[in-house]
Predict the structure.
Amino acid sequence: MGWSNDRVAHAVECSLATLKRHFRAELKFRDEMRDRLDAERLMVVTEKALDGVVGAQRLLAEMIERNDRMEIERSLAADRKKKEPALGKKQIDAAKARDADAELMAELDMEAERSAGRNARH
């Protein structure tokens, strides 16, 4: 339960490649089986909590909190995977040109404001 492939391979005294070659199907369904086990545990704890068992109520709250954290982590991981598409050379050059134009315009505006301020004082 929760073992890495390396740990499983070491436990059955084979290489990781051998483990993957001979137990591909089992490794594929391992996460699904773990989810089923967790769901079964959640049902049992929920029944006990509804019966008024205080320890089960506390455990249920912890299980729900752990599940919420896992969902948030999955969501954040999915957001990190969504990257903006890589820009090509022409797009990068165009962006640099726009930035340079914007900087130049800002500089010219500041100079014009300074000039207008000097002219207003005279």
About this structure: The first helix runs from residue 5 to 11. Residues 87 and 95 are 10 Å apart (CA to CA). The chain has a mean pLDDT of 86.
